[in-house]
Amino acid sequence: MDWTAYVDGYCERLAPGLWGEPFNDVTNLAFLVAAGLVWWRANGQRHGRLLAGLIGLVFVASTVFHLVATRWGAVADSSAIAVFLLYYAAMFPRMFFGVPMRWSWLAAPAFAGLTVATAAFGGGLYLPALIGLAVFTVALAVARDPYWAHFAVAGAIFALSLAFRQVDEVVCDVFPTGTHFLWHLLNAVVLYVVSNAMIAKTAHSPEDERAVSSD
């Protein structure tokens, strides 16, 4: 496999070159803003700072991919997103339901399995992420945890974001810039909302933060 092969997967990109997707590149700054806000909201909380670092990794990987437009850049972009999703899935049962860490981490391979199962339908990482947000929302609503609303909002925003991603190349004739840049902007909001929810939940139950490394 040629890892340096050119990737033209977006309406905005017309040819190879570092500045072939200016809107897609500049709007990646939304991830950097989200990372900064999450770091600030963490207020020294180790777990929150790690979430901020993972969002920062998404910013770097996505920016590089939309600059170089190569196969290795695409893998780096997807890998950064996957790391955030797997980490969040692993920590969700612990932080919101007090599940011991020795069991909570199993949510990560469960999410990976869901990703493989939906791959045949072209879902990639994104359909499982949408399903995950729906599951989190329902689970918290059933438990009467007020944080369910955070995930309901995040799920609605992500569904809209996914729609913009899907129609990017469809609208090229009428909107040459495409809509992928909206995917960046809305996803940055989603990452902030879910990270802020976990930080706030942990702040109300500080023993969960300490227990992460001791279970």
TrEMBL record:
Tell me the domain of life.
Bacteria
Q: State which residue ranges cross the membrane.
A: 26-43, 50-68, 74-91, 103-120, 148-166, 181-200
- What is the name of the protein in this document? Ceramidase
Q: Does Amino-acid biosynthesis show up as a keyword for this record? A: no
Name the keywords, alphabetized: Membrane, Transmembrane, Transmembrane helix
Q: Does the keyword Ribosomal protein apply?
A: no
